[in-house]
């Protein structure tokens, strides 16, 4: 039984990486490697982590979600492609502003489902007041917070803050 579980996990991890590569080939997602998200974690690494852990949580809990929509929405949830640490008057408060920009950027390169749009637009709840409505978008919203906190704590450990 444990062997079958490992085979399934390996298959899903392989499929995850294959789908990430497909999305990277069709988009500017790899550009996000040059932007820091939290601590020393790049925006790209953050997006991959959110997608990976969202999928793992869905599989662990056996949740009835669309895996491809979950992964794609998670990969694109922060698809804003700028350094948010640099003040820019054309961009108001980043936390409130970036979900809409991420959605606009994603829509220029992908035909998104309503689930994927909701993941991107609502992942900052409760900072942004409208909550996510799909199970996939709720998962990404929660996992995004977990990954962000982990990235900040990890940075603080490295710098002894």
UniProtKB/TrEMBL annotation:
What residues does the HD domain cover? 44-146
Would you say which domain of life the source belongs to? Answer: Bacteria
Name assigned to this protein: HD domain-containing protein
State the species of origin.
Ruminiclostridium cellobioparum subsp. termitidis CT1112
**InterPro entries, alphabetized:** HD/PDEase_dom (IPR003607), HD_domain (IPR006674)
Organism classification? Bacteria, Bacillati, Bacillota, Clostridia, Eubacteriales
**SUPFAM superfamilies on file:** HD-domain/PDEase-like
């Amino acid at each position: 039984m444990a062997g079958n579980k490992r085979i399934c996990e390996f298959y899903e991890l392989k499929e995850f990486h294959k789908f990430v590569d497909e999305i990277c080939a069709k988009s500017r997602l790899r550009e996000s490697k040059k932007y820091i998200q939290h601590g020393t974690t790049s925006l790209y690494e953050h997006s991959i982590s959110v997608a990976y852990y969202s999928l793992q949580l869905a599989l662990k809990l056996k949740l009835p979600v669309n895996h491809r929509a979950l992964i794609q929405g998670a990969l694109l949830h922060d698809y804003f492609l700028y350094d948010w640490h640099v003040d820019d008057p054309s961009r108001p408060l980043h936390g409130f502003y970036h979900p809409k920009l991420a959605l606009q950027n994603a829509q220029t390169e992908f035909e998104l489902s309503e689930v994927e749009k909701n993941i991107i637009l609502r992942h900052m709840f409760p900072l942004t007041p409208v909550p996510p409505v799909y199970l996939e978008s709720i998962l990404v919203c929660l996992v995004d917070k977990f990954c962000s906190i982990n990235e900040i704590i990890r940075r603080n450990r490295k710098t002894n803050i």
